Amino acid sequence: MKILFANKFFFRNGGSEVVMFNEMDLMRQADNDVIEFSMRDPRNLPSKYDRYFVSEKSYRSPSRSSRIKSALSFIHSPEAVEKIGALILDEKPDILHCHNIYHQLTPSIINAASRLNIPVVLTLHDYKPICPVYTRLRGGDVCTKCSDGRFESLLTQRCADGSLGKSALLWAEARYHAMVRSYHRVSRFIAPSRFMRDAMAHRFGKDKVIHIPNGIDASRIRTSDDDDRYVLYLGRLSPEKGVETLLQTHAADDASWRLVIAGTGPLLEDYRSRFPSAEFVGHLTGEVLETTLRRASVIVVPSEWHENSPLSILEAMAHAKPIVASRIGGIPELVRDGVTGLLFEPKNSRDLSGRLKALLDDAGLRTRLGGEARRVVEAEYSLSRHATALLSLYESLTRQFKSPSKAVS
After folding, report:
1. Where does this protein have coiled-coil stretches (predicted)?
2. pTM score above 0.70
3. Model confidence over 253-300: pLDDT tens digits?
4. Are residues 90 and 211 in the same domain?
5. Which of 110, 4, 8, 96 minimizes the C-alpha distance to 56?
6. How many angstroms separate the CA atoms of 151 and 321, rounded?
7. 162 lies in some domain
8. Are residues 88 and 32 in the same domain?
9. Distance CA 347, CA 325 (A)
10. Dist. CA 380–CA 334, nearest whole Å
11. Do residue 206 and residue 313 come from a single domain?
12. Does 187 lie in the same domain as 249?
């Protein structure tokens, strides 16, 4: 089988890229051919298909005419449509699997594949098809007003950073792809969490959205009894991640427990200046990241938006670490209260403090929850299970599209 993967970044920029590169490796291990489509970038990994990649786009030009042209390509990219069409005609893939394609590649590539009778799979890393600003948040509160496909609330609420201009551009993007039915041409959506599956099924139908959990190779991770008595946050420092609630909780507890913040983001310097008792260690990778995880007592995930299926939680589970996390979105599917970790109400500092102290004061509880987290991740979230489900989906769709009765949309 030939599988064409599309993602706007061809380097490990975030969770969506980690998932995609894992899937490409899994497909190669199963003796399938992998084809890549992305955007040119000096950080890209090597690809023999990079001649088909679209030109790099930043959307920050000072020129008014350039900004208008960029805005149009933000909605529909003729270059991406042309190049993916040429790639499909030259390489003849059996299926197109899209990950993070928004803005630089645009959902127009779905239409291009559909016209060439290629089935399209789209992994839902966020809520973009039903929320133009991705997060289903407005002013820090959960919002679902666009879930039914009407996007006018985006304008009236100025959801994009309070800017009417940015909100209007995202509204135009959403309305355009609704008009040309880009997302309706997706053969199947892959939802890494059941929460995401249910949110998207409301708009696209339950038969079109399937739940395939993300996977992790736990066998590469050596568990350890190391415990340096600190709480560890791993991730982006942005409002929806709930880091401010965590930092306020730490300060309110008079820094009676050690807090390590590993990550970067737009709020790093603000947090660093306002919460000097926390330890900000920046973005960690490789052995430094592994060591930091192994020595932590508790991993905390204080999110305040409907998280999908955070890879940081799977990573913590594979390290046999207990997790304290918000009871929101897809998180409770991974952090099972009293089984693999403890849950607290989002934004509730008192609840968060109590959960953290319960674990920090009880080494036996930490060991029990951490051990069960490792068992669950090995049994339910392995890469082999992920690969089997993915191949089954691919084979089912390619059979349908090769059937003489299959009509081209």
Report:
1. none
2. yes
3. 999 999 999 999 999 999 999 999 999 999 998 899 999 999 999 999
4. yes
5. 8
6. 41
7. no
8. yes
9. 11
10. 10
11. no
12. no
